[in-house]
Amino acid sequence: MSYSPMLVRLIDALTCMPGVGRKSAQRIAFQLLERDRGGAIALSAALQQAAEGIGHCCRCRMFSEHELCSICSASGRDTSLLCAVESPADVMAVEDATGYRGYYFVLMGHLSPLDGIGPEELGLNLLEDRLKDPGLVELIIATNPTVEGDATAHYLAEIAARNNIQASRIAHGVPLGGELEYVDGGTLSHAFFGRRVVD
Amino acid sequence: MSYSPMLVRLIDALTCMPGVGRKSAQRIAFQLLERDRGGAIALSAALQQAAEGIGHCCRCRMFSEHELCSICSASGRDTSLLCAVESPADVMAVEDATGYRGYYFVLMGHLSPLDGIGPEELGLNLLEDRLKDPGLVELIIATNPTVEGDATAHYLAEIAARNNIQASRIAHGVPLGGELEYVDGGTLSHAFFGRRVVD
């Protein structure tokens, strides 16, 4: 015994989303059918339009429906700075939290040989082209402080050195508002050995 | 600074799903665009087809794209039994776990006057018509053991009595494999006063 074919198909299709298993898919399907068919139609249209229309910016690999994303096509940004991040969400996080007004390069992942993600998948040849831009001074590496993110950061630093660009990495340590007692050992150790002279 | 218009539209549309906030919507959008555009297209088609094609069974209110759902149109089921449940998922749960082969009535919710859900929204006039079916003997009430489910059960029992149909409610108590020590007080008290003679 199972649901009607259309409902089965909808529940199956919903499980393609990360973090959505069969139970959640069922709950989502019932909710949409029972209370929000307009939302379902709008979602259907947005999905199709996005899947067919959104590509990558040809300079920074950010998701964009145009050849250049809004940051790469903006005027007045600082051409001496380039910041490499793992995901489009990281671009937004840096833009919103910092006063950074340079350019970005979105790796869309991190080096992970076991998953078949090497330098080519991260578009590192494109990044190397960017490093040859006249006026570029510094590559800010903002990959995540994970094992893969660290490996990626080392690789990027090597590419930067080869192109005579200064590489820097964002600081890792105890987060603001955090308490030493509850910070994990790795972070605390990193913060301790990365201490800076108070001036 | 925000994402490109199509991406913003997709993230907004994804939040129409229950349990999906902005962060989850963003993660889902990135995952679909980066790794599973085929899945996104399939989901888009399934959503549209379901939102436009799925209605309710005219006898039991189950989701169905036909006038009668597969259970109501099946032959050889027991016409003397009718089981009232709150949601389509409950129909599947009862079908899968029990040997029950009677018919169902799906309330699609429970009485909740504050939310504007009264007897009419639950299709209780349709249920009353079903209770007049020749051959029907028992209405099994399988609403959830919550305050609203209990109120709904009382209301259904009254309708059954008015139509001279025997009403029963599924048993509530300590779940199999549960330990008394960890069962909540309400359940234990219910199980205690609902004790049955061992024969």
Quick overview:
The structure is a homodimer of 199-residue chains. In chain A, 42% of the residues lie in helices and 11% in strands.
Based on the coordinates given, report the CATH architecture of the largest domain in chain A.
3-Layer(aba) Sandwich
Q: Strand order, main sheet of chain A: write it out.
A: 4-3-5-6
Q: Strand count, sense and closure of the main sheet of chain A? A: 4 strands, parallel
Radius of gyration from the alpha-carbon trace of chain A, in angstroms: 22 Å
Q: Which structural class do you get from the secondary structure elements of chain A?
A: alpha/beta
User: What is the assembly state of the chains in this entry?
Assistant: homodimer
Largest interface: A-B, 59 and 59 residues
β content of chain A, as a range?
A: 5-15%
Element order, helices and strands of chain A?
Answer: HHHEEEHEHEHEH
Low-confidence stretches of chain A: none
CATH fold call of the largest domain in chain A: Dna Topoisomerase Vi A Subunit, Chain: A, domain 2
Could you characterize what this model shows?
2 copies of one chain form a homodimer. With 199 residues, chain A is an alpha/beta fold. The first copy, chain A, has 2 domains: 5-53, Helicase, Ruva Protein, domain 3; 63-197, Dna Topoisomerase Vi A Subunit, Chain: A, domain 2 (3-Layer(aba) Sandwich), CATH 3.40.1360.10. Helix content of chain A is 42%, strand content 11%. Chain A has 7 helices and 6 strands; from the N terminus they run αααβββαβαβαβα. In chain A, the strands form 2 sheets. Chain A has a 4-stranded parallel sheet with strand order 4-3-5-6. In chain A, helix 1 (5-14) packs across helix 2 (22-35) and helix 2 packs across helix 3 (37-53).
